[in-house]
């Protein structure tokens, strides 16, 4: 059996939204992330990373682009 932590990212194409597909997704208890049709510049990783960066950097002021880059690298690397 596949993991309960499986997440499907789809774009609302008909095969992805068909009743049989939706029933299987519910049966397997898989999460579904919908890729917004009008956001071609967003990569799938952006849906997870962007909110996490926003939360981590909330309320922080930066004096330069390099400060932003350093903060982002520190967040990714730890």
UniProtKB/TrEMBL annotation:
<dbReference type="GO" id="GO:0003676">
    <property type="term" value="F:nucleic acid binding"/>
</dbReference>
<protein>
    <recommendedName>
        <fullName>Mariner Mos1 transposase</fullName>
    </recommendedName>
</protein>
<dbReference type="InterPro" id="IPR036397">
    <property type="entry name" value="RNaseH_sf"/>
</dbReference>
<feature type="region of interest" description="Disordered">
    <location>
        <begin position="58"/>
        <end position="78"/>
    </location>
</feature>
<dbReference type="InterPro" id="IPR052709">
    <property type="entry name" value="Transposase-MT_Hybrid"/>
</dbReference>
